[in-house]
Please model this.
Amino acid sequence: MYLKSLTIATIVFLLAACGSKMMLFSQADADRGAVKFPGLTVSSLNTGKLNYETHCQTCHGLISPKAKTEQAWRIMVPKMVTMANKKSPMMAIDSAKQASILQYVVTMSTAPAK
Model:
């Protein structure tokens, strides 16, 4: 009985932990971003967020996309990618991942308050 309760509690905890990092994007988010990044979709925003969380937090804490302007992100992301790739060539961020990160942070930097 104790083991079953512990297993259920562990599963609930893991699902809650995973869910707390998930951000549900709306079609409005994708439409707003598509003005600057034609073809942007909800799925590509999710990919960008995943790449941002996976690669950027390995060197430093994550910051909200709203913390910087579009112009700041357009300067910062390429610089950070260059630094990260020098620091860890085995986990290099390729141009597709860099683009997805930039699309995510730029799009969400202008998201309306919820």
